Structures are given as structure tokens and as C-alpha cells.
Amino acid sequence: VKLMKDQDLAGKRVLIREDLNVPVKDGVVTSDARIRAALPTIKAAVDAGAKVLLMSHLGRPTEGEYEEEFSLAPVAAHLGKLLGKDVPVIKDWQSGVELAAGQVALLENVRFNKGEKKDDEALSKQYAALCDIFVMDAFGTAHRAQASTHGVAKFAPIACAGPLLAAELDALEKALANPARPLVAIVGGSKVSTKLTVLESLSDKVDQLIVGGGIANTFLAASGKPVGKSLCEHDLIDTAKGLMQKCDIPVPTDVVTGKEFSESAAAETKSADAVADDDMIFDIGPDTSAALEEILKNAKTIIWNGPVGVFEFDQFGAGTEHLSKAIAASDAFSIAGGGDTLAAVDKYGIADKVSYISTGGGAFLEYVEGKVLPAVAILETRASE
Ligand code: 3PG
Fold first, then answer.
1. Does ligand 1 have an atom closer than 6 angstroms to the CB of 338?
2. What mean pLDDT value characterizes the chain?
3. What is the DSSP letter of 150?
4. Second label for 44, Cα 20 to 30 Å away, from 172, 184, 208, 296?
5. CA 140 to ligand 1 center in whole angstroms
6. For residues 76 and 47, what is the distance between their CA atoms, to the nearest angstrom?
7. Which residues are catalytic?
8. Cβ–ligand 1 contact at 218 (below 6 Å)
């Protein structure tokens, strides 16, 4: 693909699609990781003397309507502070946007525009008419074929990848295409069903696959262990057995259980053979954590998606904390991605010890599944013209 860094941006109208879809509460941005990740791209365009027009979606508003709670105004205010310059939000952009070189503005939430999610051609052409150069930098939304991520790239005079998108793709390629081995993946989270294609794809590539969270319960059941009242997808037990034949998937040998899903539930550590009928498994136990640590010590590449326990309740957080610290201590090339994973990275303070933290949730998973990201594919098509 063409890269932003190879383009002459001076005096040009540069339209940059970022993923500024961040949590906002009462008009205030509560986690600005995605804004900070986009900052170097925006600064580079400003420093090169471009007229910088940004666009992003926020949340999932009703299409075709303005809804205040989904306005990008709080994001623009936050970005303005980080950049040290005013970032106006532009609602009426259809007849063009006039900016001076070095100025930055943000189009209002693209999902207020009719046709955005359907990748409408007329809307895509309207976006394209705003720029000389379109920069796709929103890795987190690259799995969506929408007008602001995909359609616009068809019609813009030049369409290229921004530094953040390029870095995300480089890191994922390093972890998956030609990884230093052993390659170990950790897939946690609550359900096998939502991560099945990820598990299937990884089981073909990794040396060891570590499962945690509710996902591990189905694997425990597949190994003939009792899971009591734990979240367990009994209809996927055969699928889990099939995966265990394809690839080394160690199951927990000890677990932490509770009698109810609550912040005040009493935690009990026990052997995975001793789970009672009324127990629910909420975390991996210390022996399992220690074994995991050994595996990660030898790994040369680590891919991490999903917590291994209910870490939002501290009494069930030790497994995920131990795992976080083991990844932080490892010399392996490590990459973490997916919504909950980043919350764990933050909670246990390991952000600067992971080699690469992806801004992608769904996009990260789709890449790991081996799916084509349409917003990247169109850049490849444009580059080959
Ligand atoms: C995300 O948060 O995963 C991306 O911003 C995509 O958002 P979406 O799932 O609403 O398309």
C-alpha cells in the first residue's frame, strides 16, 4: 500500500480517517488511548504543512440523525488539549471545508450521515471531494466496509495508509506471519462461541494455545472435568476436543470458584477435579498461573486476547494479574488486543512492557482470524492501479 510518510502533504487537503471511538461519559472522554495513538499521525500531517481534516465514528447512533450523546465534540475538545490547538467540529461540510495549512478540524460523527454504514457511493464521493489525499489510519475500524473507511478510498485522488495503521499491520504480521517461535497465544473471555474462529485459526499457527475465562470451562468439560454451574457451552465440547487434538491446549489444573457472580462472592481455590455441583469457576488457580508463567518464559512471541478470570472483581483477578506480569517480564515479542484485554493491561499497569498494544477490538480479532480487512484491501487495490 501507499504510505502517508511518502506523500508530499504541504499545502494539501488531507483527510484522515481515525478511530476516535472512545468511551465518553457526561461529555468527558474516560479513556483516551485511541486518541493518543492517533496523535503522532495528526502531528506529522500538521508539521508537514497539511490542511488536516479528521473523521471518525463514535458509538452506534441511529443513522441519518444527529444525536447529541454521540457527538464528537468531547473528543475534539480532548484532542485539542493534547495537540495544543483548537479543533473545531464541523457539522456542515457538504459544500466544502476551508482550512489553512497546519490547521486541524474534525468532521462530526460520520455515522450521522445517511449511507455511511452501507458504504454508499454518493456519500463516499462527497468525502473524497474534501481532499487531495485520503489517509486511512483507523485500524480499529478497518474491518468495516463503510463510506468513511472503504468507499472514500475508492474515489480519493490518492489513498494511503497512515502511520498508526501501518504500525498495527506490521506488529500483527510480525506476530502471525513469520513469528519467532515458540509462538504462544492466550485467548480468554467468556465464550468459546464468540471466539471460535479465532481459536480455530490460532490452533493452526501457534505452538501452544492457552485458554482462560469462561472459554477454559468448555475445555475443562471436554477433558472430563467437573464444571458445576460454571458458564460452559456444552454444545461446543466436541469442537473443543477437536481443537485439543490439533494443538497443545493445556487446561487449568486448579481454579478459583464462587457460589454467585458478584463483587462480594467468597472465593475458594481448589483442584480442577474438585469443583462442586453448585460452584462457578471465575479464575485460574495459582498452580495453573505458575505453569503458565513457565510457558511464557520460553515463548519468543506472545499474542494475548482476553482475560483469564473475572478480573473486575479483585478476588477473581489474581490469574489475569499473574498473566499480565508474566507477559510484562517476558523477552518475547508480545502483542495485546481486544477491548477487555486493554482494561486488564491498564489495571495491572503493564502498558509500557507489552511490545505492541493494538487499538483494535473487532478488527484485531478479525485479523487474527485471517480475515481480509476491507479498508486495507482497498488501499492495496488503489496502490496496484
Ligand atoms: C470498535 O470499537 O471496535 C471500533 O471502533 C468499531 O466500532 P463498531 O463495532 O461500532 O463498528
1. no
2. 96
3. I
4. 172
5. 7
6. 19
7. 34, 191, 339, 362
8. no
Q: Is the CB of 362 under 6 A from ligand 1?
A: yes
Q: What is the pLDDT of residues 104-147, one digit of tens each?
A: 999 999 999 999 999 999 999 999 999 999 999 999 999 999 99
* Cα 141 to averaged position of ligand 1 atoms, centre (Å): 6
Instruction: Dump pLDDT digits (tens) for 52-96.
Output: 999 999 999 998 899 999 999 999 999 999 999 999 999 999 989
Enter the C-alpha cell of residue 35.
486518541
- pLDDT category, 359, cuts 50, 70, 90? very high
For ligand 1, atom 6, name the residue with the nearest CA: 141
Residue with cell 506480569: 325
Pocket of ligand 1 contains residue 109 by CB under 6 Å: no
Residues 6+ apart with CB under 8 A from 290: none
CA 219 and chain centroid, separation? 25
Strands (E), 116-231: 133-136, 158-161, 183-187, 208-211
Cell of 86: 483548537
- Concatenate the DSSP letters of all residues of 13-27 into one string: EEEEE------EETT
- State how far the Cα of 92 lies from the Cα of 125, in Å rounded to an integer: 16
Q: Ligand 1 center to residue 142 CA distance, Å?
A: 9
> Ligand 1, from 21, 116, 165: best to mutate by most atoms within 8 Å of Cβ?
21
How many whole angstroms from 57 Cα to the centroid of ligand 1?
Answer: 8
DSSP 3-state assignment of 79? helix
What is this structure's pTM? 0.92
C-alpha cell at 351: 502498558
Task: Kindly give, in sequence order, each residue whose CB lies less than 8 Å from that of residue 87, ignoring residues fewer than 6 positions away.
Answer: 54, 76, 77, 79, 80, 104, 105, 106
